[in-house]
Amino acid sequence: MTAPLLRALLEDPGRPDAVEVDGTTLGSEELRAAATAFAAALPDAGPVAVHATPRMETVVAVVGCLLAGVPAVPVPPDAGPGEVEHLLRDSGASVWVGPRPDGLTLPDVPVDLGARSDATLPTPPADATGIILYTSGTTGAPKGVALDHATLAAGLDGLVDAWDWTADDTLVHGLPLFHTHGLVLGVLGPLRVGARLRHTGRPGPERYAATPGTMYFGVPTVWSRIAADPGSARALAGARLLVSGSAPLPVPVFDAIRELTGQAPVERYGMTETMITLSTRADGERRPGWVGLPVAGAQTRIRGEDGTLVPHDGETIGRLEVRGPMVFDGYLGRPEATAASFTQDGWFVTGDLAAWDEGGFHRIVGRESVDLIKSGGYRIGAGEIEASLLARPEVAEVAVAGVADPDLGQRVVAWVVPSGAADEPVAEALTAHVARDLSWHKRPREIRFTDSLPRNAMGKVQKKQLDGVD
Ligand code: MLC
Ligand code: AMP
Fold first, then answer.
1. Structural domain total, the chain
2. What's the confidence (pLDDT) of residue 1?
């Protein structure tokens, strides 16, 4: 890698209002100096778990880790004790940053926003792990995705090109700081190009409307809430780019945003494992329901059942595979899962179904497996929720799936067969159990009690026969 990942932050001669997070502002020099001081205070140890609340302290800690060449492990602030323990154990985190949860044994390193160090740290090697993100699979606990500095840089540069992203931009969003969208694109992106960042704390329509900017990021739920609040939507009319991603943007929402703001949203597609590989362009066509072309450096292919490429007719559906310098190397400590997710010739199998047209425009049709749910832009594995609910004595059997939801895209629904051996199960108690055990955003939004689950002759649950699952 020729330049450090946070190139502009390190080179920026000084912009007094570079980054604002939920009302706290730091200039680029102050951010650099506070993050360098944090980096210098890190023990010479392993990954750093960062309790990723949407606050300036999270930004300083993550930037400090990147400057030090030490992996940052963002921990969702709504994660329950079981999930926190899994993330810490699996990542090998040796230091904690943020409010200490009960029972934590790791030492912590405080973040001091007023600390200043003008030391120049050596640029970490391109293959040093920058961030370890945790993401759900169809079964088991979340897997660690380690993204090194070169991968992060390649992913961001693809977007800089697609979106004409420059230091003149001001990015506004309020997305969580523990995923690709809010943290990698939404924080590291501006720091790489030297753009201003305004993080609104939460992604509510009024907060976006009250924050002037040139680019706005949202998941479809955010855009649909903005579309339902015409006054807020109109306040974004002067922006250069309204960008949607992390889940399909419904066509009526695309149309409403275009109508209210006078501009069509840019839609892009990505994954924790691959960063963003497809996008419509600042200077190109934006088509409702379509996610555009491969970004610079990315390659895609769509293959049918027989393994051959599907025709470029915009209709024929196949499995989407991607490759490029923005694709991760593998799941942390899981060689089998890694092997299963790459083809023999080195393409990453996304698990998404897609079509492409004669111009190379891509359309994402859905996921191959009903066991991966996208709710509010969060990726949630049915298997981890089922395992959590099965630990309750009042639950005999359970099936979890996503059901279409006008606000969240999909909502998590659990079909529960009571065991009869214990107290009658109570929906609220089961929901609270998952929120505590895993995390708040993974809780089922609905519990449906049933006498039995539909199964095939082998005894496997047939989720597509459950009401509302397709
Ligand atoms: C939150 N609440 C809690 C709580 N956490 N209450 C009790 N205990 C907790 N632990 C409260 C909130 O304060 C809020 O209250 C209420 O619960 C609702 O919170 P919620 O359920 O979290 O919000 P909801 O409205 O359902 O969320 C919608 C959303 C959210 C869009 C804001 O889903 C979201 O932030 N999604 C973004 C996901 C994302 O970033 N995905 C990117 C993945 S990366 P009140 O009273 O204040 O309403 C990726 C790659 C790519 O996919 O392509 O980008
Ligand atoms: P995550 O790992 O949380 O990043 O989730 C990645 C998944 O989000 C992808 O595999 C897709 O299923 C989905 N996704 C992301 N962006 C889009 C999009 N623009 N349209 C449809 N699905 C998307």
1. 3
2. 47
On whether both 68 and 139 belong to a single domain, the answer is yes
Q: Radius of gyration of the chain from Cα atoms?
A: 22
What residues flank ligand 1, with Cβ below 6 Å? 78, 175-176, 179-182, 203, 219, 221-222, 245-246, 270-272, 376-378, 440-441
Q: What is the pLDDT of residue 470?
A: 87
Is 221 a domain residue?
Answer: no
* Residue ranges lining ligand 2, Cβ < 6 Å: 135, 180, 245-248, 267-272, 291, 350-352, 364, 367, 374, 379
Which tokens sit at 466?
């459950």
Structure pTM?
0.97
pLDDT tens profile 187-204: 999 999 999 999 999 999
Distance, in Å, from the CA atom of 389 to the CA atom of 397, rounded to the nearest integer, reads: 9
- The domain of 396 spans 376-465
Give a yes or no: residue 406 inside a domain.
yes
Residues 6+ apart with CB under 8 A from 368: 319, 351, 352, 353
Residue 392 covered by a domain: yes
Please, what is the average pLDDT of the chain? 96
